[in-house]
Specification:
By secondary structure, the chain is an alpha/beta fold. The chain has five domains: 193 residues, 3-Layer(aba) Sandwich (Rossmann fold); 209 residues, Rossmann fold (3-Layer(aba) Sandwich); 232 residues, no CATH class; 182 residues, no CATH class; 261 residues, no CATH class. The chain has 49 helices and 37 strands. An eight-stranded mixed β-sheet has the order 34-33-32-31-28-35-36-37, sandwiched between helices. The protein has a seven-stranded mixed β-sheet with strand order 18-19-20-17-21-22-23, with helices on both faces. Strands 3-2-4-5-6-7 form a six-stranded mixed β-sheet, sandwiched between helices. Strand 29 and strand 30 form a beta hairpin. Helix 30 crosses helix 32. The relative contact order is 0.07. Pathway: Porphyrin-containing compound metabolism. Its EC number is 6.6.1.1. This is magnesium chelatase.
């Protein structure tokens, strides 16, 4: 029988002393020295930087995991090949095998191990396949990356029947099906009716309890199966015992595992009785401390031991010491790969914090968090902050996550939740040398997914040794993590009256009276609202003025003050010596800015900090980037460092004002865009140095999740969303209004003699309004048939309806002032206009069209073509939708326009058929027969949305963050597409980057691409465009779940394939027959933000384009191949390199800076701007060498652009129009393409407007 023990970790005195002294050691002192897993091979490799070697993310060598025994006469050799996600088993398994080779009389053991990520390399994969050819046993564990899972499956499948045993522990179903142990097999996984297989089916369905169920099964099944006589039962029992041994992970457990499997299934050992012990089982969940004599299952027992320790300093004995909860992976503890955990525990304790380190054996940590971090009686947390050192989502790890369950557990805990990251796929040196920082797969699994739980601060705290595979602490990073975890915890402990807060406002663009600007936000009115609330809540806000205007006056003496003028209030003058003492990285800034103080934020002698303090609240003005007005700096392909004034500001906030937290106010500042690694920064990265140890809270616009995510990852911010202003329909101005009236006259008088005269007036008025740029109008006075007259009027009517219904944001938002219900009507109308099949909600226009016997898509299509009857019908549907929604909203509001008891009102409204306000309204229209049930469903949904729109949680969430509480996470994006964005006041996250494009996004993308291609074909004498140059933005891909990404895939004729967990890591070509047109070449320019958030998808795009270039198809049907072959010949490179089409800025750099140059007039001719664009945007992503970062490929970029006939961008959001933000202009390559084309022909330039249900493709320059 398996024995259940608490832990074999009994410490010698010398080890305990060694651990106690760890805090002052360098990072490599955290490596355990007692066991060496293998002797280094003679050809032991040197670690290469991430931009060399094979260009992959890791150049570790599987040979360091190979053990070849000395041949012995008459003793068979058993060969074991294993593949694992992480390297923690390497040392333990190597030790087990070496020990067996010394002591076993019956067999010698050869073993070789591969990390799943290494299999990307062709040579390594070939070696793996060769190793399998003579392997007896294959072991796989945690293989959850689909493209690599398929490679493993393909290789093992060929040898499966020949091998003696195949053991795969939790992995993707296609790999799990490889399991084979005697008569036990999982080839039918997910289909069998047996309870064992039903368990795995539950996993497939995403049951959060899968790990727990599996652990219970592992505990009980061997006892049951032992007494069943059949071979199948015994084989199943040995599989479960194998899993117990594997989860046990210690060298002893793994030694017995190898003995059991080889003795039971290797034919050469048949008849030899190999004795093995039962697995030593550890607690499934518990508390582990490296100095404790045992693992604990009870918090009280743990505290009893903790409080009687003799090795602790006095600060740990204080009752009010900060308590930090740590979440650990059990596999690291049982395999002895725990030195990085030990380092964090010792560092926290050395800094006076108590520690509760918990672990779980499965992938669900929510149970242990509730069990060990929350007092069972008072339900209050016993920790002040929680840090997960696993790097994974709280529930589900690298497999299928259950974020709602995680959020529920973290809400009960209600403390700041940090998820730090141990390097998994890279060695320490590779990470240090990489401009990207973390490996993209690790960003997806260990940064993006934990963010959906509400996690913050993805600080890399542990590296990996390339030889032993063991983790080691990175001392400076551990220090940063621990101090920040304690500082977040102190917010829970400190009183409000003693807490200090630094509110930071921005000034962009500078020198134009822009102090205190932010997207959609009235900054000073909002700050005043926040300060008033803080004062009411007990914070010291001494001397707060009476109103927001006076507040502005006190910070900016002259409201039109230039940024560099003395009219900004100087809060502090920092001498150069003081600045250098307080700013350890000051020397690193001198290369770009010379000696301090410099001439920015300086009076020539001192560095100036602008702002003003009110009691314990300081309102400061963040300095600007500093390179405005300097054309040479703008031309750099990579950005410069922050200037001395910028660094001095943050040194003042942290070390002189001594802020307990900083609140960055509004979208957005410069801190998060400073140079450094994209994700997973080192201490040499500027955002990390600048923010220092201060907890950072950041108000960010709800509709901008992409840049909010950059702020979250690069400035360690708790990003709290605020609402964008309510949108209204644009309406019509004088000329267009007159045109609308003429059209109404035509509708009633078209069959009289006045019809032609009115059409003539419509044509002349339309030309006066410049509509002839969008609508093909005949000459005035030309004789037209009644059909042609209808056609002209239909097209003009369609255009003015489109203009009238565009949404425009009204005014600026003030934090804490939600919109009134009537202000929300236009937003609700647009929410109602979208079909939501996943929620079984039909769009309101669709319901109305249906009741008059039409499909809404046909109406949209007819209206776009200018068919007058369809334009009229669409107008009626639109008006009826607005009227029905307005009638509904009026019933749920009081006389002041405030929503009152929506849920009660809704219950009564939905309960009575005839009294339903929308039914009453529609009864007077032609849509009186609309389906009541469908209407009730859509209005029930709108009622929920209305509640969320008017809910105010922005101030409440700020208070929670400042009190050291958990701020509930929520998606950012467009509230019309995704009402889950509401209510605001959530900790914004983006989405799982591997989950896009979704099926719905692909469907929308196809419509836009077909409309774009048809439009260009019409304007290009029936020819298809050969190349389209387009821009991918981070925010619009989050809002639309990857629509523009889907557009690129559909242009080249491929479709994305989702894996079992819904992640998109593969594509397949669509046949030319199905596509019905040639494959169109693309040049994709990704914004810096898209590059940071969706590097996996850049990898996917590059793989897709190169795959299409290599398809054996006629070049007239495959323009990607046509151009790649031409460019390969011209440049003397292979076709894959010539098919490079995915470009962006250099790693860690953002934007083309065209708009900055234009704004500051720092250019002389257009060629200068084009050179700037080329120098900053010509960095390519290469899926054949994804670890190499962004490599400059200017020639390929220029040649690819020179074939473009069309340029294209997406406008995805009603809050932003083309002229609102400079990004659209900054990234538009139209003029550059014209200069690069041999014929100098200007390409057609289009924009897709998907802000409404009826997507439009329009000329860019006519916007």
């Amino acid at each position: 029988m398996a024995s259940l023990v608490y832990s074999p970790f009994t410490l010698s005195t010398s080890k305990a002393e060694h651990l106690s002294s760890l805090t002052n050691s360098t990072k490599h002192s955290f490596l355990r020295k007692k066991h060496r897993s293998t002797k280094p091979a003679k050809s032991f490799f040197k670690v290469k930087s991430a931009v060399s070697g094979n260009g992959l993310f890791t150049q570790t060598n599987p040979e360091v995991r190979r053990i070849v025994p000395i041949k012995r006469d008459n003793v068979p050799t058993v060969k074991i090949v294993y593949v694992v996600l992480e390297a923690q088993y390497q040392s333990s398994l190597s030790e087990a095998v070496q020990s067996l080779n010394k002591t076993s009389r019956f067999a010698s053991y050869e073993v070789v191990g591969y990390l799943v990520e290494e299999l990307r390399d062709k040579n390594t994969y070939n070696n793996f396949c060769e190793d399998l050819k003579d392997a007896n046993i294959f072991i796989g564990s945690l293989i959850f990356v689909e493209e690599l899972a398929i490679k493993v499956k393909d290789a093992v499948e060929k040898e499966r029947d020949r091998m003696d045993a195949v053991l795969v522990f939790p992995s993707m179903p296609e790999v799990m099906r490889l399991n084979k142990l005697g008569s036990f097999s999982m080839s039918q996984l997910g289909q069998s009716k047996s309870p064992f297989f039903q368990l795995f089916k539950r996993k497939k369905q995403g049951s959060a309890g899968f790990a727990d169920s599996m652990l219970k099964l592992v505990r009980t099944l061997p006892k049951v199966l032992k007494y069943l006589p059949s071979d199948k039962a015994q084989d199943a029992r040995l599989y479960i015992l194998s899993l117990q041994f594997w989860l046990g992970g210690s060298p002893d457990n793994l030694q017995n595992f190898v003995k059991m499997i080889s003795g039971s299934y290797v034919p050469a050992l048949k008849g030899v009785k190999i004795e093995y012990s039962d697995p030593v089982l550890f607690l499934d969940t518990g508390i582990w401390h490296p100095l404790a004599p045992t693992m604990y299952d009870d918090v009280k027992e743990y505290w009893n031991w903790y409080d009687t320790r003799r090795d602790t300093n006095d600060s740990l004995k204080r009752k009010d010491a900060t308590v930090v909860g740590l979440v650990l992976q059990r596999s690291h503890i049982v395999t002895g790969d725990d030195s990085h955990y030990v380092a964090v525990i010792m560092e926290l304790e050395a800094r006076g914090a108590k520690v509760v380190p918990i672990f779980a054996g499965g992938l669900d940590f929510s149970g242990p968090v509730e069990k060990y971090f929350v007092d069972p009686v008072s339900k209050q947390p016993i920790v002040n902050s929680a840090v997960s050192l696993t790097g994974f989502a709280l529930v589900g790890g690298p497999a299928r996550q259950d974020h709602p369950r995680a959020i529920e557990a973290l809400k009960k805990l209600d403390v700041p939740y940090l998820v730090a990251v141990p390097l998994v796929f890279q060695t320490t040196e590779e990470w240090l040398n990489s401009t990207l920082g973390l490996h993209p797969i690790q960003v997806a699994l260990q940064v993006a997914l934990p963010e959906l739980d509400g996690a913050m601060e993805p600080i890399v705290f542990a590296g990996r040794d390339p030889r032993t595979g063991k983790s080691h602490a990175l001392h400076k990073r551990v220090e940063q993590l621990c101090i920040r975890a304690i500082r977040w915890g102190e917010l829970k402990r400190k009183t409000k009256a003693e807490k200090k807060l630094a509110i930071t406002v921005f000034s962009f663009p500078p020198d134009k009276g822009n102090v205190g600007t932010a997207a959609y936000l009235n900054v000073f009115a909002s700050i005043f609202s926040v300060l008033r609330d803080l004062k009411r809540d007990g914070y010291n806000v001494e001397g707060l003025p009476e109103n927001a205007e006076t507040l502005i006056e006190e910070i900016i003496h002259d409201k039109e003050a230039q940024f560099s003028s003395p009219n900004l209030n100087v809060a502090y003058k920092m001498g150069v010596r003081e600045y250098q003492d307080l700013t350890p990285y000051a020397n690193a800034l001198e290369e770009n800015w010379g000696k301090p103080p410099g001439n920015l934020n300086s009076d020539g002698e001192n560095l100036l900090v602008y702002g003003k303090a009110y009691g314990n609240v300081f309102i400061g003005v963040q300095p600007t980037f500093g390179y405005e007005g300097d054309p040479m700096r703008l031309l750099f392909s990579k950005s410069a460092s922050p200037h001395h004034g910028f660094a001095a500001y943050y040194s003042y906030v942290e070390k002189i004002f001594k802020a307990d937290a900083v609140l960055h106010f509004g979208t957005h500042g410069s801190l998060e865009f400073m140079p450094g690694k994209q994700v997973g920064m080192s201490d040499a990265c500027f955002p990390d140095s600048l923010i220092g140890n201060i907890p950072n809270v950041y108000y960010y616009a709800a509709n901008n999740p992409s840049e909010a995510t950059i702020a979250k990852r690069r400035s360690y911010a708790n990003t709290i969303s605020y609402l964008t202003p309510p949108a209204e329909n644009a309406g019509l101005y004088k000329g267009l209004k007159q045109l609308s009236e003429l059209i109404s006259s035509y509708q009633s008088l078209k069959d009289t003699g006045r019809g032609p005269q009115i059409v003539s007036s419509i044509i002349s008025t339309a030309k006066q309004c410049n509509l002839d740029k969008d609508v093909d109008l005949p000459d005035e006075g030309l004789e037209l048939s009644p059909k042609d007259r209808d056609s002209v009027v239909g097209k003009v009517y369609s255009k003015i309806m489109e203009i009238e219904s565009r949404l425009l944001p009204c005014g600026l938002h003030v934090i804490g002032e939600p919109p009134s219900a009537m202000e929300a009507v236009a937003t609700l109308v647009n929410i109602a206009a979208l079909d939501r099949p996943e929620d079984e909600i039909s769009a309101l226009p669709s319901i109305l069209a249906e009741c008059v016997g039409r499909e809404i898509e046909d109406v949209y299509r007819g209206s776009d073509k200018g068919i007058l009857s369809d334009v009229e019908l669409l107008k009626e549907i639109t008006d009826a939708s607005r009227g029905a929604v307005s009638a509904f909203v009026e019933k749920t509001t009081n006389s002041k326009g405030q929503v009152v008891d929506v849920s009660d009102k809704l219950t009564s409204l939905l309960g009575f058929g005839i009294n339903e306000p929308w039914v009453e309204y529609l009864s007077n229209t032609k849509f009186y027969r609309a389906n009541r049930d469908k209407l009730r469903t859509v209005f029930g949904f709108l009622g929920e949305c209305l509640k969320l729109v008017v809910m105010d949680n922005e101030l409440g969430s700020l208070m929670q963050a400042l009190e050291g509480k958990y701020v509930e996470p929520g998606p950012g994006g467009d509230p019309i597409r995704n009402p889950k964005v509401l209510p605001t006041g959530k900790n914004i996250h983006a989405l799982d980057p591997q989950a896009i494009p979704t099926t719905a996004a692909m469907a929308s993308a196809k419509i836009v691409v077909e409309r774009l291609v048809e439009r260009q074909k019409l304007e290009n004498e029936g020819k298809y465009p050969e190349t389209i140059a387009l821009v991918l933005w981070g925010t619009d891909n989050i809002k639309t779940y990857g629509e523009s990404l889907g557009q690129v895939l559909w242009m080249i004729g491929v479709r994305p394939i989702a894996d079992t967990f819904g992640r998109v890591n593969r594509v397949e070509p669509v046949s030319l027959e199905e596509l019905g047109r040639p494959r169109i070449d693309v040049v994709v320019n990704c914004s810096g933000v898209f590059r940071d958030l969706f590097i996996n998808q850049m990898n996917l795009l590059d793989r897709a384009i190169k795959m299409v270039a290599e398809l054996d198809e006629p070049v007239e049907q495959n323009f990607v191949r046509k151009h790649a072959l031409e460019q390969a010949e011209a440049l003397g490179i292979d076709i894959r390199e010539a098919a490079t089409r995915v470009f962006s800025n250099a790693s860690g750099s953002y934007s083309a800076n065209i708009s900055l140059a234009v704004e500051n007039s720092s250019w002389n001719d257009e060629k200068q701007l084009q050179d700037m664009y080329l120098s900053r945007k010509s960095f390519a992503f290469d899926s054949d060498a994804p670890g190499a970062g962004m490599a400059e490929k200017k020639q390929v970029f220029e040649m690819a652009l020179s074939t473009a006939e069309v340029t294209f961008q997406n406008l995805d959001s009603s809050e932003i129009s083309l002229t609102d933000v400079s990004h659209y202009f900054d990234s538009d390559p139209t003029n550059l393409v014209q200069s690069l084309r041999k014929d100098k022909k200007k390409p057609s330039s289009y924009i897709a407007d998907t802000t409404t249900a009826n997507a439009q493709v329009r000329h860019y320059l006519r916007q």
